Amino acid sequence: MATHHEKAAEIKAEKWLASLPSKIKANTLCTQTLREHWATKNPSQIAISFVDCVEQKVWEQIAYLPSVESKREVRSYTAIEWIRECIGAEPDQLMRTVAGYLPNANEANKAAISLIELMLAEEPKTLNELSDDYLHGDSHMPGWEKLFGRLQEVDPAWSQAKTCLKQAVQRVHEGPRSNHNRTQNQSASHLEELNAYPSHRTTRIPKDSKSRLIRRLIQLKEKPDQCKAKGTTPEKVTKTLNRLVRGLLPSVEAAKREAGLIPANKPSAGLGIRGPSKDVARRIIKTVGKEPAHQIARAIFEALKT
Fold first, then answer.
1. How many whole angstroms separate alpha carbon 32 and alpha carbon 52?
2. Whether the Cβ atoms of residue 67 and residue 9 lie closer than 8 Å to each other
3. Long-range Cβ contact pairs of 10-14 (< 8 A, separation 24 or more)
4. Which of 11, 208, 218, 274 is an S-S bond match for 85, by CB 3.0 to 4.6 Å?
5. Does the pLDDT value for residue 306 go beyond 90?
6. C-alpha span between 218 and 221 (Å, rounded)
7. Own/partner pairs for 2-11, CB < 8 Å, 24+ apart?
8. What is the DSSP letter of 180?
């Protein structure tokens, strides 16, 4: 049950939100609605709410409402940052949940296409990774390409998402120059849709920690020398990246440890030397070994002579 202080803070936050421009209020409420549907894993409502949020580009201005009044502000994100930071999901998790919305494939298909276009604009290499199958333990995890193929067998409407993904992955492989040769294969309206979202890949540092780490891992896996300098390998970095973008790691810190970017176990802050001298001596011997303990003892005697 909320305390009196928490209730008062909530009332103040609602008043502050009410004082903001209507566009920001609408963006914030739409985001909150989608987050609630995500928490309850309701695929039908997730699909509908997600499309609404994308059409409104709600990530451009959202009210941040912490309990501490001085920290409240209006924040701006990119679309993928917004999915991770405000919804608490990885695009792969979101896609697989939406794909479970079989009663109305048209709405789910529209949500899938929107997500593909956002990924193409911001994280094309991640999109390319997610389109392929992945081995998770002893199980084969189907990528988006195979996922849409299976869904198409159930409902032909999913052929739209499958085609959109195929064209998007082709653009990733061909690079920026491919746009000049697209008009023969795609309609002008679809090209406009794919180009509707500006690329943030090189113009800014991601605001959320997961997006920053994903970008860092993508850069590292292609640079063996940098991996070696950090005490890791491209193979380890690639494996961590694959698991991270699929939502298989619990946190950014866990991903860093798995990638070898931070020690698996933090070193002890130091050896305690307080207490009875015999106990301290035993701790030193147990920690460093007998011969190093002899060297420490001799060093202490030498220091006492000065």
1. 12
2. yes
3. 10/67, 12/69, 13/65, 13/67, 13/69, 13/72
4. 208
5. no
6. 6
7. 6/67, 9/67, 9/69, 10/67
8. G
Q: Which one has a higher pLDDT value, 29 or 292? A: 29
Regarding whether 167 and 112 lie in a shared domain, the answer is: yes
Domain contains 204: no
* pLDDT tens digits for range 177-219: 554 454 444 444 444 444 444 444 445 778 889 999 999 999 9
Contact 127, 172 (CB under 8 A): yes
Q: pLDDT tens-digit profile of 89-148?
A: 999 999 999 987 766 788 899 999 999 999 999 999 999 999 999 877 777 889 999 999
Cα–Cα distance, 24 to 61 (Å, whole number):
6
Contact 201, 213 (CB under 8 A): no
pTM score, whole prediction: 0.75
Q: Tell me if 4 is assigned to some domain.
A: yes
**Distance of alpha carbon 247 from alpha carbon 223, whole angstroms:** 24
Nearest to 80 by CA among 89, 71, 67: 89
State the residue range of the domain holding 243: 209-265
Q: How far is it, in rounded angstroms, from Cα 302 to Cα 260?
A: 41
CB distance 91 to 64 below 8 Å: no
